[in-house]
Amino acid sequence: MASILLKRLMSTITLKAAPSKAHHHGPLPATSFPAGFVLGGLHAGVKKKAGVPDLAVILSTSEHPTSAAGCFTRNAFKAAPVIVSDDILKRNGGYARGVVVNSGCANAVTGKQGIDDAWAMVKETDKLLPAKETSQFAHETLVMSTGVIGQNLPISKIVEGIRSSPKVLGSDFAAWERAAQAFMTTDTFPKLRSRTFTIGGIEYRMAGMDKGAGMIHPNMGPASTTFASTKQLHATLLGCIMTDAAVSPRSLQSALTYAVDRSFNSISVDGDMSTNDSIYVLANGAASNGTPVIDEETNPDAYDVFKRELTTFAADLAKLVVRDGEGATKFVTVTVKGAPSYRDAHNIASRISTSALVKTALYGEDANWGRILAATGSVPLLPSAAGAPAPVINPTKVNVTFVPSDGTKPLPVLVNGEPEQVDEVRAKEILSLEDFEVVVELGMGGDGEAQYWTCDFSYEYVRINGDYRS
C-alpha cells in the first residue's frame, strides 16, 4: 500500500530531470591497463533480468607475489563478504591474488549461511588461480557482494557462474568494462578508470572500478592485518584497484588507508553507511623489472609518489559515485579552510554534505547559505591536546562563497560574519550549473583544509528508494 501511495504522490510532482551521465564512461586505451591481470563479468542469475552482468572475477597472473590491501565498512552489521575478506587478509599478512564480486544481493545480515556462501565463492575462485609452487596460503581470493540486504545468495548459480567464468576472462578494455558492469546495482553507468605513472624511471599502470549510487556515506577503516595502524575515522560502495607496481603489503595498506580517507571517506550521497563498503587494492609487481619493492620505510621517496598516485586515482573513482548519486542533478564540492586541523575541516565538510536541508536547497537552486552555517556550527571541534579545551569557531571570522565551475566570478555570500547583499540572479546562475563549489573559510588561523564531494536531494531519490526492493 505504501508503495502504491508513493507512486501516486510522485505522479503529481513535476520532476526536474537529472542530467545525462553517459559521458562519464568511454573507451580507455589498452596501454593504460596494468599487466598481469585477467578479469571479466557475466550473468550468473543473481539479477532477474537475463544477460545483465552480475558476477565479476579478477585474477592476478603475475609470477611475482601479489600484495593486497583493504578498507572495510565500520558498520556494526558487517556483511559476510567483509568478515571473510578481512579474515583472509589477516591470515595471509596482506597477500591475495583474486577477487570475486556479485551484485543483486548483498549477503548482509544473513547469519551462518551468509558466511558459508561467502567462503564458497572464495574457494571456487581459488581454483581458477594459476598454480604457484611458492604459494603457502590456503585461500587467496577476496569477495564482495552488493544489493538487497537480508536475503541469501542464490549460491548454486553463483558457483556455477564462477566455474564458467574462464571463457569471459581477458585483459582488453571490453573485459575490464564487463567486470565494471557486473559491479552495478542502481548505477547508471560503469565506473572504470585507468592511468599510467612513473616511479624511478619505470612506467607503471593502475586501473580500477567502483560502484555506488545510493546508501553512500562510507566510513571505512583498514583491514585487520598485523601491520595496520590504529583505525581512524575513516555505500553500498565497492571498489577494486589493480596496479602492476610491486608494493610491500604493509605499505600498500598504509597508502590505501591514507587514500581512502581523502577519497571514498570524503563522499556522501544520502548520509547512510552501508553494511558492505569495501575497497581493495592488488599490486602484482608485473612491471617492476627487478626494481626494489616500494616500501614506506626502505624506499620512502618511491612510496610517497605511489601514495600520491593512489590517492588521486581513488578520488577520481570516488567522484564518479557522487556524480551517479540516485536522482542527483548536482555535483557539489564542499571545501572547508582555516580549521585547526584536517580532521576538524573534514568533519565540518562532512556535516555540510549530509545536511538534508542543504541538499534540498541545492536541488531547488536556492542560495540558502544560512543552512550551510547552521551545519558548520553544529560540529564540535577536537581538542588540540589531551586535557586542552576544544577551540571554538568565531562567527565574525567566517566567510562563505559559491564558486562556479565555468570559470566565471565567484559569489561571496558571507564575509567576516556579515551577510552580503546577494545578487539572487547571479546565485541562481551558479546553482543551476551541474558542477559548483561551496567554500567555507573558518578564519581560525589553522592550516586544516579538507574537501567533501556531495550531490543534491531530488524527488527522484525518494522514488528510487521508496521502491527499491521491488
Automatic annotation (TrEMBL):
Catalyzed reaction equations: N(2)-acetyl-L-ornithine + L-glutamate = N-acetyl-L-glutamate + L-ornithine; L-glutamate + acetyl-CoA = N-acetyl-L-glutamate + CoA + H(+)
GO process terms (BP): L-arginine biosynthetic process; ornithine biosynthetic process
Post-translational changes noted in the entry: The alpha and beta chains are autoproteolytically processed from a single precursor protein within the mitochondrion.
UniProt xrefs under SUPFAM superfamilies: DmpA/ArgJ-like
Name of the top EC class for this enzyme: transferase
Database matches in CDD domains: OAT (cd02152)
Pathway: Amino-acid biosynthesis; L-arginine biosynthesis; N(2)-acetyl-L-ornithine from L-glutamate: step 1/4; Amino-acid biosynthesis; L-arginine biosynthesis; L-ornithine and N-acetyl-L-glutamate from L-glutamate and N(2)-acetyl-L-ornithine (cyclic): step 1/1
The keyword Mitochondrion is assigned to this record: yes
Heme is among the record's keywords: no
Annotated site location: Cleavage: 235-236
GO CC terms of this entry: mitochondrial matrix
Entry similarity comment: Belongs to the ArgJ family.
Protein name (Swiss-Prot/TrEMBL): Arginine biosynthesis bifunctional protein ArgJ, mitochondrial
Organism of origin: Pholiota conissans
